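Lab notebook page, bench 4
Experiment: in silico fold of construct C2
Operator: M.H.
Input chain length: 323 residues
Purpose: comparison with the prior construct
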Amino acid sequence: MDMKTILPLVILSSQIASAQLVTESFGSGANAFSMDFVTIGNPNNAADTTGAPNPVGAVAYSYQIGKYEVSRDMITKATSAGSLGITLQDMTSYGGNGANRPATGVSWNEAARFVNWLNTSKGYQAAYNFTTSGANDNITLWGAGQYSGSNQFRHKDAYYFLPTVDEWYKAAYGSPSGTWYNYPTGSDSIPTAVASGTLLNTAVYDNQSGPADITNAGGLSPYGTMGQGGNVWEWNETARDGVNNSASEIRELRGGSWYDFDSGSNDLDASYRYSNFPMYEDILDGFRVASVPEPGSASLVILGLAAVLARRRRSARGVAARR
């Protein structure tokens, strides 16, 4: 088997993994809902050295991230099913409280409790260590052996979690080819400001009347996420200083919102970020969820490619025998 045969198959496997869409279901009965995740492949990618922080965006593993922001309906149903106590901002003056609108007025702590419920409702390990019952109480750091590296926020065995700044940044500004862009639309040009829609190189920002439904929040990123630029600012798991070892540390938010004005220091740009305390709630802030890949999904692709290679090898041996 020569490289002319192997290389296209390797490229194909990368494209399949990058384009993969996974739908996960949660809750039951009146509290049932689903979330779509896209696969972020290209593990061990080189970091971007033009964004903020610098460097940023290097991720050593494949993972998944929500195609859309978390909606009001998801929060309402999870809160009901799990008695989570999470509150949402009344958006009557900003386009209404439609079920498919992004969940706003959710603090980092509340987002973390939502993520914990996603895990525990499916029998997985909770991502964040809450030792008190208040919906907006701070976490307690995980102890030795319960976390990986220096990230004491996230349990090492959690399935769902809030994306770190590197995970969020790669999904927004990166691409399967490894190219980095200034905006989360696969472009270095400022997106066209729209009130809603799915056209390429658009985003919901620049003083719109309110956020759009999560499925109409602007053009897609190269990996297939929507609304990582504009609509609502999104909480990252990472502390502002990049070291997750203080439970009360201010957290990063990325991507800009429907209200932010187009300006020379555009809030949607890869170099822009802001931060706030984990108990802070605001009408401009929301989040999306990330996860580890579904067990076996990557291996299925590999097995499929192996079968193709095996068939080609058998065919080649048959030709040689006939000669």
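Observations: The mean pLDDT is 88. The chain has five helices and eleven strands.
Next step: discuss at group meeting.
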